[in-house]
Specification:
By secondary structure, this protein is of the alpha+beta class. The protein has 8 helices and 5 strands, in the order αααααβββαββαα. Strands 1-2-3-5-4 form a 5-stranded antiparallel sheet, sandwiched between helices. The structure holds zinc ion.
């Protein structure tokens, strides 16, 4: 059952998905569509559109006591790391600059440096806690490129494991995210101090100590 307004995946992908579950199928299926087609994210997109304002501005503006509820994991100097509430996979993080803009060209050098620095921190954290086999990551600018929240740029970091989604979503609209968001948040938050202490090796000029 697809969410209202969601489209069926292309026929070829549905056929691939069925074939992939056949024991002797030797094909490989690693298309961009596999990563990007995620119908369960539609409620997230609609909720974000209904939200009065911008969650990426509102969440860090709230007291730090709200961070757990908002899944906000780490506050830097010019941006923050947050769990995606409607993840592509277990441990899906986002790096978000504090400043509200949909145009990458308006960021200053200090903001761009910290965006990468925060992504490095997110990668270290995920490797330590979740031991992923691979990652998807990057930036979607504009609705046509797949951005759910279009007004405020944010970078995705999606840990992957062999067979993690395995086309279950595309074929059956079943999302395979086995661990609760709150449990993932708790595990990542608990590991942060250790990861930060390992990271501060003198080369990392822009990483806030906490
Ligand atoms: Zn914003």
């Amino acid at each position: 059952m697809l969410p209202p307004g969601a489209r069926q995946p292309p026929l070829l992908l549905r056929v691939y998905g069925i074939l992939k579950n056949v024991p002797n199928f030797k094909g490989t299926v690693t298309t961009m569509t596999e990563q990007l087609w995620a119908p369960w994210r539609l409620p997230y997109i609609l909720a974000a559109e209904r939200h009065n304002g911008c969650i990426f501005c509102d969440f860090p503006a709230q007291a730090e006591s709200c961070d757990e509820q908002n899944l906000l994991l780490y506050r830097g100097n010019t941006g923050f790391i947050i769990l995606n509430a409607f993840p592509y996979s277990n441990g899906h993080l986002m790096v978000v600059p504090f400043r509200h803009t949909d145009t990458l060209e308006t960021y200053g050098d200090n903001e761009l440096l910290e965006i990468m620095s925060l992504q490095r921190l997110a990668f270290r954290l995920l490797r330590k806690v979740m031991n992923p086999e691979a990652f998807n990551g990057g930036l979607n600018i504009g609705r046509a490129a797949g951005a759910g929240i279009t007004g405020h740029l944010h970078w995705h970091i999606v840990p992957r494991w062999n067979g993690d989604t395995n086309f279950m979503t595309v074929v059956n609209d079943v999302r395979v995210v086995p661990e609760s968001l709150q449990a993932v948040y708790t595990r990542l938050k608990a590991a942060l101090p250790e990861v930060l202490s390992e990271a501060n090796n003198g080369l990392e000029i822009n990483e806030k100590k906490s």
